[in-house]
From TrEMBL:
Record GO terms (molecular function): ATP binding
Protein species of origin: Candidatus Nitrospira kreftii
Start and end residues of each Fido domain: 1-96
Annotated Pfam families: Fic (PF02661)
Gene3D superfamilies: Fido-like domain, Winged helix-like DNA-binding domain superfamily/Winged helix DNA-binding domain
Coiled-coil ranges from the UniProt annotation: none
InterPro entries reported in the protein's UniProt record: Fido, Fido-like_dom_sf, Fido_containing, WH-like_DNA-bd_sf, WH_DNA-bd_sf
Name this protein carries in UniProt: Cell filamentation protein Fic
Source species, domain of life: Bacteria
Binding site for ATP: 35-42
Keywords assigned: ATP-binding, Nucleotide-binding
Length: 190
């Protein structure tokens, strides 16, 4: 641990993202605590990034990426151990996780901006804004899905809201009656 702390305190001439990945791996590998080594290592990598100017404003954590496929996380750790402590595979995994999380934050931000622009330009109500955001995220929605997004609102009110989106040219309705599905139009996507 002393060597790791000393190494972290030196100017290494290594990109800070790689320093963060190395620090995380080393703390997991050293395993200094009975419990909490994983959490502490993730916190250490976040601290390394933060100290180097990577302030993610708590918009994401790498844990979100790791939790999607825990076995891939453990394989990446194990591969370094099996390769004589060659951290290349682990660092590729770490950097991919960071890039994935940053990309997702960017996409979420773009969706929120797009939704807000549409709300402002077309005078959409709050329920319509919720529907537009869901359409930006996941594609076509049926009435039951819209009802789940905006609980406590009558079906008739939601039908008027959806009709308003269609009339504004922001959404298209496909199908008939109960099978109708709504998706964003080209205008809604631009």
């Amino acid at each position: 641990m002393r060597e790791l702390v000393e190494w972290l305190g030196k100017d290494k001439g290594i990109h800070p993202v790689l320093v963060a990945g190395i620090a995380q791996f080393q703390l997991v590998h050293i395993h200094p605590f009975v419990d909490g080594n994983g959490r502490t290592s993730r916190l250490l990598s976040t601290l390394c990034l933060y100290r180097s100017g990577y302030d993610f404003k708590r918009l994401f954590t790498l844990s979100e990426f790791y939790d999607r496929d825990r076995s891939a996380f453990y394989r990446a750790i194990q591969s370094a151990r099996e390769q004589g402590m060659d951290l290349t595979g682990w660092l590729e995994y770490f950097v991919d996780g960071l890039a994935t999380q940053m990309s997702e934050v960017r996409q979420r931000g773009e969706r929120v901006i797009r939704r807000d622009v549409l709300v402002r330009e077309h005078g959409l109500n709050e329920r319509q804004a919720v529907v537009v955001e869901a359409l930006l995220v996941g594609g076509p929605l049926g009435m039951e899905e819209v009802e789940a997004l905006v609980p406590g609102v009558t079906r008739r009110t939601l039908q008027r809201d959806l009709h308003g989106l269609v009339e504004a040219g922001l959404a298209v309705a496909e199908g008939a009656a109960r099978a109708t599905r709504y998706s964003l139009s080209d205008k809604g996507l631009r």
